[in-house]
Amino acid sequence: MTVQQFTDALTHHFPQLREDLRPGVRPAGLAEAERHLGQPLPPAVRDTYLACDGQLDVVPGVLLGLRWLPLDDVVREYATWLDLAGEDTGLDSRPPGAVRPVTFSPGWLPFASDGGGNGLAVDLQPGPAGTAGQVITFGPDETTRLVLASSLPAFLGWVADQIEAGRVTVEGNDVRLNGATSFLDAARTLV
């Protein structure tokens, strides 16, 4: 799966959302982000951001209502969340053991946000039952961390499949999957 499948689905079904996608980041921008993050980006994340650097506007969020963060915003979100990192025994994951029970991990790269502190991240330090590079939910309202896809390209491919299957609607600034008002709420029933 590539970002192209996702952008093609937007072009065909929701061109108004496609217009909000930014062109790919330049290699120098990737190197700068990696310097700030203190770690290299996995090839799948690098390739995705070389093809498309998130979205321009906050609303509507092109990722089923969530804003796809440009790489500069990924770095800012990472720095903000890193200050809040720590163990939290009240957290679990689905599947069990796939995501470490922490408020935030230095191995998480936040790439999508609901604007209220919750979002999606690429997990580079998964739990014992997880896989490096998996896409997970996180944030104060996400007490059960969900694994949504094996990688960022796989997640974008899944979103494209939902669009192509007619499960996504867009009305003004409201983007919904199967009629749910929040993708993160809907995800709890999908996994």
Automatic annotation (TrEMBL):
It holds the Pfam family SMI1_KNR4. InterPro entries: Knr4/Smi1-like_dom (IPR018958), Knr4/Smi1-like_sf (IPR037883), KNR4/SMI1_regulator (IPR051873). Residues 24-161 form the Knr4/Smi1-like domain. It comes from the Bacteria. This is Knr4/Smi1-like domain-containing protein. It comes from Deinococcus aluminii.
